[in-house]
Structures are given as C-alpha cells and as structure tokens.
Amino acid sequence: MFTDNSNEISNTANASSQLACRGVRGATTVRENTKEAILEATYDLLSTIILVNKIHPDDVASVYFTTTKDLNATYPAIAARQHGWYDVALICGHEMDVPDGLPMCARVLIHWNTTLSPQEIVHVYLKEAKSLRPDRDDHPPVRPIQMSEVEAAVKMLEHNL
Q: Over the Cα atoms of the chain, what is R_g?
C-alpha cells in the first residue's frame, strides 16, 4: 500500500532551517613529528574551523582525526580536549599511504549537528594542505602562532618583576 508523504518531504529551500548532521573537513601540515608540533598545528586547525563555522561542542556528534604515517608522536585528538571538547566522541587513525601523497599532514572530519546547508559550511585547509583542495580559494587566514603556556608565564613574571 502506498502512503503519500509529500507533505513531510522538505524541499531544498527549507533544508537549511532543519537540523542535520553535516561533515566539516579540514587539513593542515605539521612542521615536525613532535607532540608539540602536532598539537599546535591541530589546535590551530580546529580553532579556525570553530571560529569560521561558529561550532559549539554540544552540537558535535564526533570527530575523526587522521595523520599521515610520518606523524605518530601523539594523538591529534588531544587538541580537541585542549579546546574543552571533553564530552565529544573522538578517534584517531592514519591516512592511506598513497605514493606522492602530502607528507606530514593532519586531517579532521567533524560530524556537526547544524541547520546550515552544505554550501554554507566552511572547510578549512591550511599551510601546504591547501594543495589538497585547489578548488577552494576561500580559505580563512591562518592565525598567528600563539606562545606556549610556559612562554606566557615567563613573560608575566618578567613583567611583574
């Protein structure tokens, strides 16, 4: 028996007002295989994605981080925890080892519950990872390198002495 559900089917014009789980992609390159370098690059990537898309952790279903096999000094998902994403499901893995693939690359796929349409989502590719998506010329600017907590504490002590 056929049931007419045409009134329940949304059209494209209404799609952006309905909540849907969308993928937000991003990638960056890392200067060296150290814990600090991996976390700095991944933190900056997440910061940019969060800023340009106005993502709140309560709206994130899960995040999948990958790195090329030459990056294994730490889990890039720690950068999400540094952002306060304590209740978000996170997982890490390695990318396929493709000949002539971009080395020293960290990637992320965020599963985000949003009312934005796929065309409104900003995918972020930083540094050498911009070459992965040459079709995207609307990359947001890279934020300046932030000082570490130790550097900040030293500067504060120097200022107070």
A: 19
